[in-house]
Write a structure and sequence with these properties.
The complex is a heterodimer of chains A (about 210) and B (about 200). Chain A has a two-stranded antiparallel sheet with strand order 1-2. Chain A has 10 helices and 2 strands. Classes of the chains: A mainly alpha (about 210), B alpha+beta (about 200).
Chain lengths: ~210, ~200
Protein backbone atom coordinates (compact mmCIF):
# COMPACT_ATOMS: atom_id res chain seq x y z
CA UNK A 1 0.00 0.00 0.00
CA UNK A 2 2.82 2.37 0.85
CA UNK A 3 4.30 1.77 -2.58
CA UNK A 4 1.03 2.67 -4.25
CA UNK A 5 0.67 5.88 -2.24
CA UNK A 6 4.20 6.87 -3.10
CA UNK A 7 3.52 6.26 -6.77
CA UNK A 8 0.39 8.43 -6.65
CA UNK A 9 2.28 11.27 -5.00
CA UNK A 10 5.16 11.15 -7.47
CA UNK A 11 2.77 11.04 -10.40
CA UNK A 12 0.69 13.97 -9.15
CA UNK A 13 3.67 16.12 -8.33
CA UNK A 14 5.96 15.27 -11.20
CA UNK A 15 5.45 12.49 -13.73
CA UNK A 16 1.80 13.25 -14.43
CA UNK A 17 1.84 16.82 -13.17
CA UNK A 18 -1.48 18.31 -14.21
CA UNK A 19 -0.01 21.56 -15.54
CA UNK A 20 3.23 20.75 -17.33
CA UNK A 21 2.53 17.11 -18.25
CA UNK A 22 -1.20 17.05 -18.86
CA UNK A 23 -1.47 20.76 -19.77
CA UNK A 24 -4.62 21.14 -17.66
CA UNK A 25 -5.72 24.09 -15.59
CA UNK A 26 -3.74 26.46 -17.82
CA UNK A 27 -6.32 29.23 -17.80
CA UNK A 28 -6.13 29.82 -14.06
CA UNK A 29 -2.39 29.14 -14.02
CA UNK A 30 -1.99 32.11 -16.36
CA UNK A 31 -4.52 34.33 -14.63
CA UNK A 32 -3.70 34.27 -10.92
CA UNK A 33 0.09 33.98 -10.99
CA UNK A 34 1.08 37.64 -10.78
CA UNK A 35 1.25 37.45 -6.99
CA UNK A 36 2.55 34.52 -4.93
CA UNK A 37 -0.15 34.95 -2.28
CA UNK A 38 -2.92 34.62 -4.87
CA UNK A 39 -1.25 31.56 -6.36
CA UNK A 40 -0.89 29.91 -2.98
CA UNK A 41 -4.52 30.46 -2.03
CA UNK A 42 -5.70 29.34 -5.45
CA UNK A 43 -3.52 26.21 -5.17
CA UNK A 44 -4.74 25.38 -1.67
CA UNK A 45 -8.32 25.90 -2.82
CA UNK A 46 -7.78 23.53 -5.71
CA UNK A 47 -6.10 20.95 -3.48
CA UNK A 48 -9.07 21.05 -1.12
CA UNK A 49 -11.65 20.80 -3.89
CA UNK A 50 -9.85 18.05 -5.82
CA UNK A 51 -9.15 15.95 -2.73
CA UNK A 52 -12.67 16.10 -1.31
CA UNK A 53 -14.38 15.79 -4.69
CA UNK A 54 -12.34 12.68 -5.43
CA UNK A 55 -13.07 11.31 -1.97
CA UNK A 56 -16.81 11.84 -2.38
CA UNK A 57 -16.92 10.53 -5.93
CA UNK A 58 -14.99 7.47 -4.83
CA UNK A 59 -17.24 6.88 -1.79
CA UNK A 60 -20.43 6.83 -3.82
CA UNK A 61 -18.95 5.30 -6.98
CA UNK A 62 -20.55 1.89 -6.36
CA UNK A 63 -24.06 3.39 -6.25
CA UNK A 64 -23.63 6.01 -8.95
CA UNK A 65 -25.36 5.01 -12.19
CA UNK A 66 -22.65 5.08 -14.85
CA UNK A 67 -24.49 7.21 -17.38
CA UNK A 68 -25.21 10.09 -15.00
CA UNK A 69 -21.81 10.09 -13.26
CA UNK A 70 -20.69 13.31 -14.97
CA UNK A 71 -23.69 15.18 -13.57
CA UNK A 72 -23.00 13.81 -10.12
CA UNK A 73 -19.31 14.76 -10.34
CA UNK A 74 -20.09 18.28 -11.48
CA UNK A 75 -22.55 18.70 -8.64
CA UNK A 76 -20.03 17.49 -6.07
CA UNK A 77 -17.25 19.68 -7.46
CA UNK A 78 -19.41 22.80 -7.51
CA UNK A 79 -20.53 22.21 -3.95
CA UNK A 80 -16.94 22.12 -2.71
CA UNK A 81 -15.98 25.15 -4.81
CA UNK A 82 -18.83 27.14 -3.30
CA UNK A 83 -17.60 26.14 0.15
CA UNK A 84 -14.13 27.49 -0.70
CA UNK A 85 -15.67 30.68 -2.09
CA UNK A 86 -17.78 31.27 1.03
CA UNK A 87 -14.83 30.49 3.29
CA UNK A 88 -12.59 33.02 1.52
CA UNK A 89 -15.32 35.67 1.51
CA UNK A 90 -15.90 35.25 5.22
CA UNK A 91 -12.34 34.90 6.47
CA UNK A 92 -10.00 36.28 3.79
CA UNK A 93 -11.98 39.10 2.14
CA UNK A 94 -8.93 40.80 0.60
CA UNK A 95 -7.76 37.62 -1.10
CA UNK A 96 -11.30 36.88 -2.18
CA UNK A 97 -11.43 40.26 -3.92
CA UNK A 98 -8.02 39.75 -5.48
CA UNK A 99 -8.91 36.35 -6.91
CA UNK A 100 -12.26 37.67 -8.06
CA UNK A 101 -14.09 35.29 -10.37
CA UNK A 102 -11.28 32.73 -10.44
CA UNK A 103 -12.37 30.97 -7.26
CA UNK A 104 -15.75 30.24 -8.79
CA UNK A 105 -14.04 29.14 -11.96
CA UNK A 106 -12.26 26.32 -10.09
CA UNK A 107 -15.43 24.41 -11.00
CA UNK A 108 -14.35 24.41 -14.62
CA UNK A 109 -10.78 23.41 -13.83
CA UNK A 110 -10.20 20.29 -15.91
CA UNK A 111 -7.83 18.85 -13.32
CA UNK A 112 -10.64 18.09 -10.89
CA UNK A 113 -13.04 16.60 -13.40
CA UNK A 114 -10.17 14.70 -15.01
CA UNK A 115 -9.01 13.16 -11.76
CA UNK A 116 -12.56 12.34 -10.61
CA UNK A 117 -13.28 10.64 -13.91
CA UNK A 118 -10.01 8.82 -14.43
CA UNK A 119 -8.98 8.00 -10.88
CA UNK A 120 -11.70 8.34 -8.26
CA UNK A 121 -14.23 6.43 -10.35
CA UNK A 122 -12.05 3.31 -10.19
CA UNK A 123 -10.14 3.54 -6.90
CA UNK A 124 -10.87 3.31 -3.17
CA UNK A 125 -11.60 6.53 -1.22
CA UNK A 126 -8.32 6.89 0.67
CA UNK A 127 -6.22 6.56 -2.48
CA UNK A 128 -8.54 8.94 -4.33
CA UNK A 129 -8.20 11.52 -1.58
CA UNK A 130 -4.42 11.19 -1.74
CA UNK A 131 -4.48 11.46 -5.51
CA UNK A 132 -6.52 14.67 -5.23
CA UNK A 133 -4.03 16.12 -2.78
CA UNK A 134 -1.07 15.13 -4.97
CA UNK A 135 -2.58 16.51 -8.17
CA UNK A 136 -3.58 19.69 -6.39
CA UNK A 137 -0.10 20.02 -4.95
CA UNK A 138 1.40 19.49 -8.40
CA UNK A 139 -0.73 22.35 -9.69
CA UNK A 140 0.14 24.55 -6.70
CA UNK A 141 3.88 24.02 -7.12
CA UNK A 142 3.79 25.07 -10.77
CA UNK A 143 1.68 28.13 -9.91
CA UNK A 144 4.10 29.10 -7.17
CA UNK A 145 7.08 28.65 -9.48
CA UNK A 146 5.51 30.89 -12.14
CA UNK A 147 4.38 33.52 -9.65
CA UNK A 148 7.79 33.49 -7.92
CA UNK A 149 9.44 34.76 -11.09
CA UNK A 150 6.56 37.03 -12.08
CA UNK A 151 6.19 38.72 -8.71
CA UNK A 152 9.95 38.99 -8.20
CA UNK A 153 10.63 40.62 -11.55
CA UNK A 154 7.33 42.42 -11.88
CA UNK A 155 7.07 43.96 -8.41
CA UNK A 156 10.44 43.25 -6.79
CA UNK A 157 8.58 41.50 -3.98
CA UNK A 158 7.83 37.97 -2.72
CA UNK A 159 4.55 37.41 -0.86
CA UNK A 160 4.30 41.20 -0.76
CA UNK A 161 7.65 41.63 1.01
CA UNK A 162 10.12 43.79 -0.84
CA UNK A 163 13.29 41.82 -1.57
CA UNK A 164 14.92 43.63 -4.47
CA UNK A 165 14.97 47.06 -2.89
CA UNK A 166 13.72 50.46 -4.00
CA UNK A 167 16.18 50.77 -6.89
CA UNK A 168 14.65 47.78 -8.70
CA UNK A 169 12.89 48.75 -11.92
CA UNK A 170 9.84 46.53 -12.22
CA UNK A 171 9.34 44.56 -15.42
CA UNK A 172 5.79 45.58 -16.18
CA UNK A 173 5.62 42.86 -18.82
CA UNK A 174 5.88 40.20 -16.14
CA UNK A 175 2.68 41.33 -14.42
CA UNK A 176 0.78 41.50 -17.68
CA UNK A 177 -0.64 38.37 -19.35
CA UNK A 178 2.37 37.87 -21.69
CA UNK A 179 4.60 37.35 -18.66
CA UNK A 180 2.47 34.37 -17.66
CA UNK A 181 2.65 32.87 -21.14
CA UNK A 182 6.43 33.19 -21.26
CA UNK A 183 6.92 31.67 -17.82
CA UNK A 184 4.53 28.79 -18.38
CA UNK A 185 6.13 27.97 -21.72
CA UNK A 186 9.59 28.04 -20.16
CA UNK A 187 8.49 25.72 -17.36
CA UNK A 188 6.88 23.25 -19.78
CA UNK A 189 10.00 23.36 -21.95
CA UNK A 190 12.38 22.75 -19.06
CA UNK A 191 10.34 19.94 -17.53
CA UNK A 192 9.83 18.28 -20.89
CA UNK A 193 13.58 18.10 -21.28
CA UNK A 194 14.04 16.81 -17.74
CA UNK A 195 11.64 13.89 -18.13
CA UNK A 196 12.94 11.25 -20.55
CA UNK A 197 10.65 10.13 -23.36
CA UNK A 198 10.25 6.60 -22.02
CA UNK A 199 8.63 7.56 -18.77
CA UNK A 200 6.42 10.09 -20.49
CA UNK A 201 4.86 7.30 -22.51
CA UNK A 202 4.35 5.37 -19.34
CA UNK A 203 2.65 8.37 -17.75
CA UNK A 204 0.28 8.97 -20.62
CA UNK A 205 -1.35 5.60 -20.09
CA UNK A 206 -2.72 6.08 -16.61
CA UNK B 1 -25.07 -2.24 -10.32
CA UNK B 2 -28.33 -0.91 -11.80
CA UNK B 3 -29.02 -1.56 -15.44
CA UNK B 4 -28.45 1.21 -17.97
CA UNK B 5 -32.08 1.40 -19.07
CA UNK B 6 -33.40 2.12 -15.59
CA UNK B 7 -34.91 5.57 -15.24
CA UNK B 8 -36.24 5.76 -11.73
CA UNK B 9 -33.06 4.90 -9.91
CA UNK B 10 -30.81 7.50 -11.60
CA UNK B 11 -33.42 10.21 -11.09
CA UNK B 12 -33.84 9.28 -7.47
CA UNK B 13 -30.08 9.09 -6.97
CA UNK B 14 -29.47 12.49 -8.56
CA UNK B 15 -32.25 14.04 -6.50
CA UNK B 16 -30.85 12.59 -3.31
CA UNK B 17 -27.30 13.78 -4.01
CA UNK B 18 -28.58 17.22 -4.97
CA UNK B 19 -30.68 17.52 -1.82
CA UNK B 20 -27.79 16.46 0.41
CA UNK B 21 -25.28 18.85 -1.12
CA UNK B 22 -27.67 21.76 -1.43
CA UNK B 23 -28.73 21.46 2.20
CA UNK B 24 -25.10 21.27 3.24
CA UNK B 25 -24.34 24.46 1.32
CA UNK B 26 -27.43 26.17 2.67
CA UNK B 27 -26.30 25.46 6.22
CA UNK B 28 -22.80 26.79 5.55
CA UNK B 29 -24.23 29.85 3.85
CA UNK B 30 -26.56 30.51 6.76
CA UNK B 31 -23.67 30.23 9.22
CA UNK B 32 -21.44 32.72 7.40
CA UNK B 33 -23.91 35.15 5.83
CA UNK B 34 -23.84 37.58 8.77
CA UNK B 35 -20.09 37.66 8.82
CA UNK B 36 -19.86 38.27 5.08
CA UNK B 37 -22.48 41.03 5.20
CA UNK B 38 -20.68 42.63 8.13
CA UNK B 39 -17.41 42.60 6.19
CA UNK B 40 -19.04 44.15 3.14
CA UNK B 41 -20.73 46.85 5.22
CA UNK B 42 -17.46 47.47 7.03
CA UNK B 43 -15.67 47.93 3.72
CA UNK B 44 -18.20 50.51 2.56
CA UNK B 45 -18.01 52.36 5.87
CA UNK B 46 -14.22 52.43 5.82
CA UNK B 47 -14.30 53.64 2.24
CA UNK B 48 -16.65 56.52 3.05
CA UNK B 49 -14.61 57.52 6.10
CA UNK B 50 -11.37 57.33 4.13
CA UNK B 51 -12.76 59.55 1.38
CA UNK B 52 -13.86 62.10 4.01
CA UNK B 53 -10.36 61.99 5.51
CA UNK B 54 -11.80 60.77 8.80
CA UNK B 55 -10.19 57.32 8.98
CA UNK B 56 -10.26 55.63 12.38
CA UNK B 57 -8.81 52.31 13.61
CA UNK B 58 -10.78 49.23 12.54
CA UNK B 59 -12.35 48.56 15.94
CA UNK B 60 -13.90 52.04 16.09
CA UNK B 61 -15.26 52.17 12.56
CA UNK B 62 -18.80 51.08 13.41
CA UNK B 63 -19.37 53.46 16.32
CA UNK B 64 -17.61 56.38 14.66
CA UNK B 65 -19.48 55.86 11.42
CA UNK B 66 -22.80 55.75 13.24
CA UNK B 67 -22.24 59.10 14.91
CA UNK B 68 -20.63 60.87 11.93
CA UNK B 69 -22.13 59.73 8.66
CA UNK B 70 -25.76 60.29 7.72
CA UNK B 71 -27.34 59.27 4.47
CA UNK B 72 -29.16 62.05 2.61
CA UNK B 73 -32.22 60.84 0.75
CA UNK B 74 -33.65 64.18 -0.34
CA UNK B 75 -31.31 64.51 -3.31
CA UNK B 76 -31.80 63.05 -6.77
CA UNK B 77 -28.40 61.33 -6.73
CA UNK B 78 -27.48 57.78 -5.81
CA UNK B 79 -26.10 57.28 -2.29
CA UNK B 80 -25.20 60.68 -0.93
CA UNK B 81 -23.88 60.97 2.62
CA UNK B 82 -23.07 63.79 4.99
CA UNK B 83 -20.19 63.71 7.44
CA UNK B 84 -20.70 65.74 10.61
CA UNK B 85 -18.11 66.05 13.36
CA UNK B 86 -18.94 68.10 16.50
CA UNK B 87 -22.05 69.54 14.83
CA UNK B 88 -19.99 70.87 11.99
CA UNK B 89 -20.49 69.52 8.49
CA UNK B 90 -17.15 68.20 7.28
CA UNK B 91 -18.01 66.75 3.90
CA UNK B 92 -20.61 65.55 1.44
CA UNK B 93 -19.82 62.13 0.07
CA UNK B 94 -21.34 60.61 -3.04
CA UNK B 95 -20.95 57.25 -4.71
CA UNK B 96 -19.51 57.32 -8.20
CA UNK B 97 -19.35 54.61 -10.79
CA UNK B 98 -18.40 54.33 -14.41
CA UNK B 99 -16.62 52.22 -16.97
CA UNK B 100 -12.95 51.46 -16.34
CA UNK B 101 -10.72 49.65 -18.78
CA UNK B 102 -12.07 46.18 -17.95
CA UNK B 103 -15.15 46.76 -15.87
CA UNK B 104 -17.13 49.03 -13.63
CA UNK B 105 -15.18 51.24 -11.23
CA UNK B 106 -17.16 52.06 -8.11
CA UNK B 107 -16.05 54.34 -5.31
CA UNK B 108 -16.75 57.30 -3.08
CA UNK B 109 -15.76 60.94 -3.47
CA UNK B 110 -15.99 63.46 -0.66
CA UNK B 111 -16.46 67.18 -1.36
CA UNK B 112 -16.14 70.03 1.09
CA UNK B 113 -19.44 71.49 2.47
CA UNK B 114 -19.20 74.47 0.10
CA UNK B 115 -18.51 72.08 -2.81
CA UNK B 116 -15.34 73.93 -3.81
CA UNK B 117 -12.83 71.26 -2.84
CA UNK B 118 -12.35 67.51 -3.15
CA UNK B 119 -11.55 66.15 0.28
CA UNK B 120 -10.65 62.69 -0.97
CA UNK B 121 -11.71 59.65 -2.96
CA UNK B 122 -11.67 55.92 -2.44
CA UNK B 123 -12.44 52.96 -4.66
CA UNK B 124 -14.83 50.31 -3.47
CA UNK B 125 -14.43 47.90 -6.35
CA UNK B 126 -12.87 47.71 -9.77
CA UNK B 127 -11.53 45.02 -12.06
CA UNK B 128 -8.44 46.74 -13.46
CA UNK B 129 -5.24 44.77 -14.19
CA UNK B 130 -3.47 43.94 -10.92
CA UNK B 131 -0.14 45.76 -10.75
CA UNK B 132 -1.09 48.20 -13.49
CA UNK B 133 -4.53 49.81 -13.50
CA UNK B 134 -5.19 48.09 -10.20
CA UNK B 135 -2.71 50.46 -8.61
CA UNK B 136 -5.38 53.16 -8.52
CA UNK B 137 -6.39 51.68 -5.17
CA UNK B 138 -2.89 52.22 -3.76
CA UNK B 139 -2.55 54.97 -1.18
CA UNK B 140 -0.10 57.13 -3.14
CA UNK B 141 -2.59 57.50 -5.98
CA UNK B 142 -5.66 58.11 -3.81
CA UNK B 143 -3.83 60.53 -1.51
CA UNK B 144 -3.23 62.82 -4.49
CA UNK B 145 -6.92 63.63 -4.48
CA UNK B 146 -6.79 65.26 -1.05
CA UNK B 147 -7.74 68.93 -1.03
CA UNK B 148 -8.05 69.55 -4.74
CA UNK B 149 -9.57 72.97 -5.35
CA UNK B 150 -12.44 72.95 -7.81
CA UNK B 151 -12.94 76.67 -8.37
CA UNK B 152 -12.59 77.89 -11.96
CA UNK B 153 -11.80 74.43 -13.24
CA UNK B 154 -15.14 73.53 -14.84
CA UNK B 155 -15.31 70.99 -16.37
CA UNK B 156 -11.74 69.70 -16.02
CA UNK B 157 -11.61 69.32 -12.27
CA UNK B 158 -9.01 66.59 -12.46
CA UNK B 159 -6.16 66.83 -14.90
CA UNK B 160 -2.99 64.78 -15.04
CA UNK B 161 0.58 65.96 -15.25
CA UNK B 162 2.28 67.26 -17.38
CA UNK B 163 -0.66 69.50 -18.38
CA UNK B 164 -0.20 73.10 -17.21
CA UNK B 165 -3.11 73.02 -14.77
CA UNK B 166 -2.45 69.44 -13.61
CA UNK B 167 -3.20 68.44 -10.04
CA UNK B 168 -2.73 64.65 -10.10
CA UNK B 169 -0.18 62.16 -11.47
CA UNK B 170 -1.54 59.30 -13.55
CA UNK B 171 -0.46 55.70 -12.95
CA UNK B 172 2.51 54.89 -15.20
CA UNK B 173 1.68 52.12 -17.65
CA UNK B 174 -2.03 52.41 -16.96
CA UNK B 175 -3.04 55.39 -19.08
CA UNK B 176 -6.45 54.02 -19.99
CA UNK B 177 -7.43 53.24 -16.41
CA UNK B 178 -6.13 56.60 -15.20
CA UNK B 179 -8.08 58.35 -17.93
CA UNK B 180 -11.19 56.40 -17.03
CA UNK B 181 -10.90 57.55 -13.40
CA UNK B 182 -10.39 61.15 -14.51
CA UNK B 183 -13.41 61.02 -16.78
CA UNK B 184 -15.66 59.41 -14.18
CA UNK B 185 -14.65 61.95 -11.54
CA UNK B 186 -14.92 65.00 -13.79
CA UNK B 187 -18.36 63.95 -14.98
CA UNK B 188 -19.74 62.93 -11.60
CA UNK B 189 -18.36 65.99 -9.79
CA UNK B 190 -20.08 68.21 -12.34
CA UNK B 191 -23.31 66.27 -12.05
CA UNK B 192 -23.18 66.28 -8.27
CA UNK B 193 -22.55 70.01 -8.06
CA UNK B 194 -25.28 70.77 -10.60
CA UNK B 195 -27.82 68.66 -8.76
CA UNK B 196 -26.97 69.76 -5.26
CA UNK B 197 -26.17 73.47 -5.54
CA UNK B 198 -28.64 75.28 -3.33
CA UNK B 199 -30.29 72.06 -2.20
CA UNK B 200 -27.81 70.93 0.44
Amino acid sequence: MAGKSKKIIIQGLWKDNPVFRQILGICSALAVTNLMMNSLVMGLGLMFVTAFSELTVSLIRKWTPKHIRMMVQTLIISAYVIIVDIFLKAYFPTISTALGPYVGLIITNCIIMGRCESFAQNNPPHLSFLDGLASGAGYTIVLLAISFVRELLGFGTLFGINVLGKAWVSWTLMIMPPGAFFMLAIIIWITKNMIPEKSSKEGAKS
Amino acid sequence: MPKKKQILYPVFFMLLVTVIFTSGLAVINELTIDKINDLEAMKTKKSILYASDLSVPDDQVNTFYAETIKKIDSIDFANVYKATVDNEIKAYIYEFSGPGLWGQIIGYAALSPSLDKIIGIDFLSHSETPGLGGRISEAWYKEQFRNILLENRTPNYISYAPANDSNVDAVTGATLTSDAVRKILNETIQEFIDKTKGVL
